[in-house]
Design a protein that fits this description.
Order of helices and strands: EHEHEHEHEHHHHH
CATH class of the largest domain: Alpha Beta
Distance between the termini: 29 Å
Number of strands: 5
Oligomer: single chain
Number of helices: 9
CATH superfamily of the largest domain: Response regulator
Helix content: 40-55%
Shape: elongated
Largest sheet: 5 strands, parallel
Number of domains: 2
Strand order of the largest sheet: 2-1-3-4-5
CATH topology of the largest domain: Rossmann fold
């Protein structure tokens, strides 16, 4: 799949900082979208491309730290880089515990910010790839019939064919056939791979 240009979202209430960051990011080939408040950012569309958020702590309305906590629990969170001119160690620890990629006290070196952004974008690329793979596995799971699903559920518990047959009230041959079909539909090349796939799908 062709990846379009990543986007770096910036929320800072200082117009001069927004302008400087916009210029810096564009100078290295990144697209920047800058906002003066959390409210503006939330109201704006977010294209389906690798992205991250550079977030100031002190903002009008909802503050950066409060928004980071809220954003981390949303359905489509982005990796966050916190920046502030009023930070301390406790704030830094809190931000990192909530999942921030980095915590940069102002003024910071441009390269430090660019390095943090690259790490954040790579993290988002990995998340997106994982989501795509999981969606594909769920599509494959949907092709299993009820009997095949029940066999897989028993297999991942470590039960033998004979035990599964007794539990489900079918013959061992039927168990083997269902397991074989399930492995083929899930593209599992071995029993170990089937168990790994089932674990990712929450079976």
């Amino acid at each position: 799949m062709n990846e379009t240009k990543p986007i770096v979202f910036v929320i800072d209430d200082d117009p001069s900082i927004r302008e400087a960051l916009d210029s810096l990011l564009r100078s290295v080939g990144l697209e920047a979208r800058c906002f003066g408040s959390v409210k503006e950012f939330v109201a704006a569309p977010r294209p389906d491309v690798p992205s991250c958020l550079v977030l100031d702590v002190r903002l009008p309305g909802k503050g950066g730290m409060d928004f980071q906590k809220e954003f981390a629990l949303s359905e489509t969170p982005l990796p966050v880089i916190i920046m502030t001119g009023h930070g301390d160690i406790a704030m830094s620890v809190q931000a990192m515990k909530t999942g921030a990629v980095d915590f940069l006290p102002k003024p910071f070196r441009e390269q430090d910010l660019l390095d943090a952004i690259e790490a954040a974008l790579e993290k988002d690329r990995a998340r997106r790839a994982e989501a795509r793979e999981l969606a594909m596995l769920r599509e494959r799971l949907a092709t299993l019939n009820e009997g095949e699903r029940r066999v897989v559920a028993q297999v991942v518990q470590g039960r033998l064919n004979k035990q599964i047959a007794g539990e489900l009230g079918v013959s061992e041959i039927t168990v083997k056939v269902r397991r074989s079909r399930a492995m083929r539909k899930l593209h599992a090349g071995s029993l170990a791979e089937l168990i790994k796939i089932a674990g990712r799908l929450g079976i």
